[in-house]
Amino acid sequence: MDLSELLREVLKNFSPYQPGEQPIGDGWIKLNTNENAYPPIPEVIEEIKNSINDKLRLYPDPLALEVRKAVLNQLLRDEDTLTNRNNVFIGNGADEIIEVIFKVFVDPGNEVVFFYPSYGMYKVLATLYNAKINEINLNDDFSIPDTAFSAKGKLLFINSPNNPNGKSIGNATILKLCSNFPGIVVVDEAYADFSEQTSLSLLKKVKNLIVVRTLSKGFSLASLRAGFALADASIIKEMNNVKLPFNTTYITQIAALACIKNRVKIFEQNKKIIEERNRLTQELNSFEGVSVLPSDANFILVKFNDKSKALKFLWDFKDKHKILVRHFSKPRLYPYIRITIGTEEQNNKLLDVFKLLAVKYL
Ligand SMILES: Cc1ncc(COP(=O)(O)O)c(C=O)c1O
Description:
- The protein is built from eleven helices and twelve strands.
- The protein is globular, with a radius of gyration of 21 Å.
- By secondary structure, the chain is of the alpha/beta class.
- The chain has a seven-stranded mixed beta sheet, with helices on both faces. A three-stranded antiparallel beta sheet has the order 9-10-12, covered by helices on one side.
- It has two domains: 15-39 and 267-361, Alpha-Beta Complex (Aspartate Aminotransferase, domain 1); 42-261, Type I PLP-dependent aspartate aminotransferase-like (Major domain) (Aspartate Aminotransferase, domain 2, 3-Layer(aba) Sandwich), CATH 3.40.640.
- The model has no long low-confidence stretch (mean pLDDT 97).
- The longest helix is centred in the C-terminal third of the chain and has 23 residues, at 263-285.
- Bound molecules: pyridoxal-5'-phosphate.
């Protein structure tokens, strides 16, 4: 058998998504994949433990009805947004939701628009679905260039706050993109729980908008895979039609419900991450030759004036101090390292090591 004869054409030169390293063994300070600095709160852990029961014999609710209701009636109760459960889709994390959107809208050759730099999965999925890719370069300050307002296509992805720089995109910009774009605009708000901005209010008047959220970041649930999307009921119906039947597990649904129920306590905990983000930004900005981009997320992007220094810091952090941060070997991102905000203790360690490396390299 010649596998290369059997493979789909698109896989012959395919670059898969490169997840950040998940190290084996203890003692690492993991600031490379934008996970929440804190574990799920005890109330959530308790509910997860209780969900290990005889229900595991059964298939979970395919439409996650209880979670959809909780999203609307509790989590988004005070938001000015859609209010009907037919407007909510529950997925196996934001990644699955994004793929479901491709399944609904993208035939081979259809145009898909997204920005660079941004989250890598848009390109991976656009490639897998044989889309025609329009990857628009963000301006030097990571803002959206004017050319985006005349883009055409089936899907346009906006990531707000944008990974890797961390800045939110304003609603006036999102609204203008929605008005000008002939297809569906997807706003990936994976990090919105750390930002003061959200596009949720636009959903009431804009029909070609899907807002995607996740419990991976703001709710410390990355491992259990839960996210939701809000959109016009006609879009959600199609998404539910094409998803795999049991896309979220019973345990995940119970955990999601517990997160939503205990959201006030969780948001209080996230405030510490936001405070630490502001502290780290200030402290790192005081180093000569280094600047931190303003961030609304649980990570910061640090720029080295001398771009050769970024990798030196990355390797010393890892090899000598067991601290993992993220570097992207892509042309525009070469001078940067992205650092997930850790606990106060982890951040203190990071700053101590940064000081040592600054003496050595800066
Ligand atoms: C911008 C963005 N969207 C989506 C995701 C995926 O989130 P989830 O864990 O919900 O699949 C990530 C994960 O890093 C992300 O950075």
